């Protein structure tokens, strides 16, 4: 399972990450957003039989620490 | 007359560089189909952007419409304007569609007299900047596609009804941006030798040529933007379409170099335009161009969202539009009125200028154009250079959706030049912009108040400095790009 986070503005640096299985069926990973703004996280999953799944999760209004 | 070739006292100066005299380019620029050949690829790209915008991924960084519009087109546009001239208008795909349509529909009307100015296009320019924020155009392939479609429809409607290049001269917001920015460009479509024009009996450069016979079919257009070459000064309103080059029977028009921004330092009567100092509409265009550059960049940094949230609280609103209306009024109307009004007043009382306040403000507003262009350059080249290669995976992805696997899997890690290098360039552009503005203001002050130029120069230089400091401050703010400030 892999992650990719993109800003809502094209051309900005995306960030990538991998998720590890921490329990059967549960995956955990982390992403560090490079800047404030609206982000969209794309989750890419490859199933054991080779099929792929994708999901989009909106993360709006990320602010700096 | 500013053309040195017309002045015997400077006739000994070497002739200016002429792009059309470069071996190989001469034939190219004289080729009648050059414009069409440049327009066709851009039309194909525009159609691809529309289709991908409407039917492709909804995520902006994955879509051709948003990536090409807001990263590559804008960046390439300002860099070409900086390094050469208004070559985008030359290759404008909208005009190709118009030219094809005009084979079937012949416009009969003249553009209305009351609209023969820049007020409409100033409003449209500001409206596009407003819509960019209101609809977060950068993040919406769908809206971006409709913007391009709207542009094609508007061109067809305006130039389908009205003769000549009414859309380019009086409507097109991108064109107005290019016209103002190209006053800073190093190249200009210009007469080589005015003495040749003096003896010319045809005036084909503006009239064009018609076939003999009762139908008077146009075989070569003259300038559709009403710029008579011998009296044309600078790049304002010039689309680099090269119709005048093709029409001139004496091969007396070239693409000559000049000192960038030099046309802003003088105020002759210009063909098709008049005097800059008497054009309030052009000055308003300069204001939207210069102050809009800062406003557009301000939308990218964190303090903008804090300000918007604060304003929304004061106004007791939950929608973006009223907040943006207030911001736009503040930055495009109130701020220029205060700064330019104050500078004009100081020029009057301290510099001793006998001009009234408004004419003074109109005259010196053009001095802020280089700074505004520096800001547009810094902003757009940032996106262009840091996202330079992103077009590759987006195009690969679009091709893959069509079943074309020949381009391989999208390489989403392809980005562009690292931000730390681009930031240096941004500072350089802003410094150049300030230097250009100070130079133009200085020349205007010298010509206005020969006895006390420093007193006329200082207030306007202070305005330029205030805007420059604001631009530098913005550059060092944390970036923050969102369309959801009220929810965030």
Give the tags.
heterodimer; A: 65 residues; mainly beta; elongated; B: 488 residues; mainly alpha
Describe this structure in words.
- The complex is a heterodimer of chains A (65) and B (488).
- Chain A is mostly beta strands.
- Chain A has no helices and 6 strands.
- Chain A has strands at residues 2-7, 15-18, 20-23, 26-28, 36-46, 52-62.
- Chain A has a 4-stranded antiparallel sheet with strand order 2-1-5-6, with no helix packed on it.
- Chain A is elongated and about 35 Å long.
- The longest helix of chain B is centred in the C-terminal third of the chain and has 30 residues, at 320-349.
- The model of chain B is unreliable at 1-5 (pLDDT under 50).
- Chain B is built from 20 helices and 5 strands.
- In chain B, strand 2 (209-210) and strand 3 (218-220) form a beta hairpin.
- In chain B, helix 13 packs parallel to helix 20.
- Chain B has 488 residues and is mainly alpha-helical.
- The interface between A and B is medium-sized, with 23 and 34 residues.
- Strand 5 (36-46) of chain A pairs parallel with strand 5 (480-481) of chain B, so a sheet runs across the interface.
Q: What is the overall silhouette of chain B?
A: globular
Average pLDDT value of chain A? 88
Strand order in the sheet with the most strands of chain A = 2-1-5-6
Structural class of chain A: mainly beta
Instruction: Identify low-pLDDT runs of chain B.
Output: 1-5
How far apart are the termini of chain A? Answer: 28 Å
Strand-residue proportion of chain A: over 45%
Blueprint (SSEs and pairs):
The complex is a heterodimer of chains A (65) and B (488).
Chain A: E1 2-7, E2 15-18, E3 20-23, E4 26-28, E5 36-46, E6 52-62
Chain B: H1 25-30, H2 34-55, H3 64-83, H4 87-90, H5 93-101, H6 119-134, H7 141-161, H8 166-171, H9 173-181, E1 187-191, H10 194-198, H11 204-207, E2 209-210, E3 218-220, H12 243-247, E4 253-257, H13 280-298, H14 302-315, H15 320-349, H16 357-365, H17 369-386, H18 391-401, H19 419-448, H20 453-475, E5 480-481
Antiparallel strand pairs in B: 1-4, 2-3
Helix pairs in contact in B: 2-3, 2-5, 2-7, 3-7, 3-17, 3-18, 5-7, 6-9, 6-13, 13-15, 13-16, 13-17, 13-20, 14-15, 15-16, 15-20, 17-19, 19-20
């Amino acid at each position: 399972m892999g992650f990719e986070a993109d800003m809502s503005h094209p051309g900005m640096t995306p960030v990538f990450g991998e998720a590890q299985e921490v329990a059967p069926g549960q995956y955990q990973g982390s992403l560090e957003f490079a800047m404030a703004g609206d982000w969209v996280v794309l989750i890419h999953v490859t199933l054991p039989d080779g099929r792929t799944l994708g999901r989009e999760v909106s993360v709006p209004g990320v602010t700096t620490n | 007359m500013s053309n040195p070739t017309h002045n015997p006292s400077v006739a000994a100066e070497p002739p200016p560089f002429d792009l059309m005299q470069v071996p190989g380019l001469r034939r190219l620029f004289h080729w009648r189909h050059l414009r069409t050949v440049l327009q066709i690829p851009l039309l194909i790209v525009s159609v691809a952007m529309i289709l991908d915008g409407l039917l492709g991924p909804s995520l902006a960084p994955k879509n051709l419409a948003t990536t090409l519009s807001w990263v590559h087109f804008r960046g390439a546009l300002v860099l070409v304007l900086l390094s050469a001239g208004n070559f985008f208008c030359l290759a404008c795909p909208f005009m190709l569609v118009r030219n094809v349509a005009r084979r079937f529909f012949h416009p009969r009307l003249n553009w209305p007299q009351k609209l023969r100015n820049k007020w409409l296009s100033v409003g449209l320019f500001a409206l596009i900047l407003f819509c960019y924020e209101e609809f977060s155009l950068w993040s919406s392939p769908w809206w971006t596609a409709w913007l391009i479609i709207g542009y094609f429809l508007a061109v067809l409607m305006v130039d389908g009804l009205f003769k000549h290049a009414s859309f380019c001269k009086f409507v097109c917001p991108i064109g107005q941006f290019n016209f103002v920015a190209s006053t800073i460009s190093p190249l200009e479509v210009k007469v080589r030798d005015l003495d040749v024009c003096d003896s010319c009996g045809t005036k084909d450069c503006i009239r064009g040529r018609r076939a003999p016979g009762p139908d008077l079919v146009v075989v070569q257009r003259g300038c559709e933007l009403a710029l008579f070459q011998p009296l044309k000064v600078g790049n304002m309103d010039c689309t680099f379409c090269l119709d005048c080059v093709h029409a001139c029977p004496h091969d007396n028009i070239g693409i000559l170099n000049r000192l960038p921004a030099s046309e802003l330092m003088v105020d002759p009567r210009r063909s098709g335009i008049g005097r800059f100092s008497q054009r309030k509409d052009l000055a308003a265009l300069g204001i939207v161009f210069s102050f809009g550059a800062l406003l557009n960049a301000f939308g990218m940094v964190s303090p903008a969202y804090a300000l918007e949230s604060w304003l929304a609280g004061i106004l007791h609103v939950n929608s973006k539009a009223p907040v943006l209306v207030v911001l736009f009024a503040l930055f495009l109307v109130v701020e220029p009125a205060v700064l330019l009004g104050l500078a004009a007043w100081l020029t009057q009382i301290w510099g001793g200028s006998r001009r009234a306040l408004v004419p003074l403000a109109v005259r010196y507003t053009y001095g802020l154009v280089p700074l505004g262009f520096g800001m547009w350059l810094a902003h757009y080249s940032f996106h262009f250079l840091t996202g330079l290669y992103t077009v590759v995976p987006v195009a690969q992805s679009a091709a893959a959706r069509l079943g074309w696997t020949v381009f391989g899997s999208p390489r989403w890690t392809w980005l562009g030049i690292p931000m730390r290098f681009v930031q240096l360039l941004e500072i350089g552009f802003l410094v150049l912009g300030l230097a250009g503005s100070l130079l133009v203001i200085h020349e205007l002050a010298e010509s206005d108040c020969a006895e006390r130029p420093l007193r006329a120069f200082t207030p306007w230089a202070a305005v330029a400095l205030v805007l420059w400091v604001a631009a530098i401050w913005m550059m060092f703010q944390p970036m923050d790009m969102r369309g959801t400030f009220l929810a965030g």
